[in-house]
Each structure stands twice: as structure tokens, then as C-alpha cells.
Design goal:
The protein has 68 residues and is mostly helical. The protein has one domain. It is built from four helices and no strands. α1 packs across α3 and α2 runs antiparallel to α3. The longest helix is centred in the N-terminal third of the chain and has 18 residues. InterPro entries: DUF7696. It holds the Pfam family DUF7696. This is Regulatory protein RecX.
Length: 68
């Protein structure tokens, strides 16, 4: 796995983790974004939010895979 593939996978896993923790509504995601921005910067927080949106769209697929 290349460094780029590893980073993509890491971002997907982090986004899925937070979704599983219940960060699924605008208010909780905004709070999470503030926490991430304080520790890792605004760009990292925005990237996480964007990835969470992508993972939310495909959640049925990865949740199904998780059960297998």
C-alpha cells in the first residue's frame, strides 16, 4: 500500500469512527470540527468533515462489510 493509499484509508477509518460514535447531526459535527481544528488546524477539521460526508453517503456499504 502506498503512502497515499494509506492516508486515504486512515481518513476513511477516522470518519467512520466518528460517525459510529454518533457524530451524525450538524450540531455534534460542528463541535467535533472545533475540537479537531484546535488540535490539528482548520484544514484538518474541514477535511474530516468532508470525509464524514462522503462516508455517510456510502454507510450502507461499509456497515454491511463490517458485519461480514
Amino acid at each position: 500500500m502506498s503512502d497515499e493509499e494509506t492516508e486515504v484509508h486512515r481518513r476513511q477509518c477516522e470518519a467512520r469512527y466518528w460517525l459510529r460514535q454518533g457524530y451524525t447531526d450538524a450540531r455534534s459535527v460542528a463541535l467535533l470540527q472545533q475540537l479537531v481544528a484546535a488540535k490539528r488546524g482548520d484544514q484538518a477539521a474541514q477535511d474530516l468533515r468532508d470525509e464524514m460526508r462522503e462516508q455517510w453517503k456510502s454507510r450502507r456499504q461499509w456497515q454491511k462489510e463490517q458485519l461480514l
